[in-house]
Amino acid sequence: MKQFNVGILGATGAVGQKFINLLQGHPWFTITALGASERSAGKSYAEAVNWIEAVELPDAIASMTVTDCSPASMKGVDFVFSGLDASVATELEGDLARAGIPVISNAKNYRTHPHVPLLVPEVNATHTEMIKAQDFDPSGRGFIVTNPNCVAVPLVMALKPLMDAYGIQAVALTTMQSVSGAGYPGVASLDILGNVIPFISGEEPKIAAEPMKLLGRLGGDQTVTEARFPIDATATRVPTIEGHLLSVKIKFEQKPASADEIKAVLRNWKHEVSGLDLPSSPRTALKVYDDDRFPQPRKNAYNENGMQVGVGRVRMLEFFDAGLVALGHNTCRGAAGVAILNAELLVKQGFIQ
Ligand code: NAP
């Protein structure tokens, strides 16, 4: 297997640190460049970073020199992962793609671009065809692929098999999002300890919109016709550290016969990368719990390296047809981990060579 040299943009941030942690010992990808702002450029990584991961900072990374995020500084990498702040991602990611460097991004800036895939491999692996319609780089080497918001990832993984089986008319959900989702330093401890904040700025519109593109249909012209059903979301911040829990209610086009039937559909899901053997694929992408006390963020968010989505409380309802809870690790499955899985898929499909 070819080895790939990888740069990380926003390497000093919360998502950048998760990339560094998850890429240690990766069988295909080696980190050779670390980019951040002018505040950090020129310093060793150990000097520039406030390391918040719960493992030791690897020595080989600590001694690397942080650079800026320009194409000149990223020369020599095969592609970059981006955990850049949204205020700078449009320009910096676009410059790299135009310079012929593939960008696998967590930032929201290009998620709605008509030719940029919004990708969760298990759900819409074929949407990578959209890359062929991109015109960042006439040679075709440079392109941009994004992953969705950290709530949208577990939501679409739970909805996709149910949409295929029953069709979906409408969804309502309330999120219980952990503090790590706000980056570092995030929410002040006096605001969140022993408390719940019933609003996260800018979150609900993303939760409503992004699943439509993810669950949409790819046409022959390399564009996606979006799914069309309403999602009413209430986003809340709760005092957990990692893992977002969602309480989801679904109105189907055809009502399922029972909760057991729904569980069987979820358990038997043959998703789009089953059998591809990608290094970061969980063995079981969706774990369905029969015990109503699970899944729980502290006990289950890290299942399979934080890449498994847990589904529980599957039940029939009166007004909506069915309800469930879904749990996804926000910085692994919802950010850096899904971006690494996206890059592995792009290697398998030949987009990254
Ligand atoms: P963060 O901790 O604030 O980190 C931001 C990073 O961007 C830092 O490395 C910072 O470098 C860099 N940066 C800021 N201004 C820059 C500039 N002018 N030029 C180059 N680099 C610059 O943010 P985060 O929580 O990691 O989030 C990063 C991105 O991922 C955001 O777009 C966010 O919306 C998205 N995201 C986050 C999560 C999550 O759970 N946290 C989940 C999904 C998606 P310096 O240290 O040098 O300032």
Quick summary of this structure?
With 353 residues, the protein is an alpha/beta fold.
Please tag this protein with its features:
12 helices, 28% helix, six-stranded mixed sheet, binds NADP nicotinamide-adenine-dinucleotide phosphate, 353 residues, alpha/beta, Dihydrodipicolinate Reductase, domain 2
Describe the structure.
The chain has 353 residues and is an alpha/beta fold. It has 2 domains: 4-149 and 335-349, NAD(P)-binding Rossmann-like Domain (Rossmann fold), CATH 3.40.50; 152-329, Dihydrodipicolinate Reductase, domain 2 (2-Layer Sandwich), CATH 3.30.360. The chain has helices at residues 14-23, 45-48, 59-62, 86-98, 121-124, 152-166, 189-192, 203-214, 259-267, 297-300, 303-306, 332-348; strands spanning 4-9, 29-35, 79-82, 103-105, 144-146, 168-177, 217-218, 224-225, 231-237, 244-252, 286-288, 309-316, 322-328. The strands form 3 sheets. Strands 9-6-10-13-12-11 form a 6-stranded mixed β-sheet. Helix 6 (152-166) crosses helix 8 (203-214). The longest helix is centred in the C-terminal third of the chain and has 17 residues, at 332-348. The radius of gyration is 20 Å and the shape is globular. The model has no long low-confidence stretch (mean pLDDT 97). The chain binds NADP nicotinamide-adenine-dinucleotide phosphate.
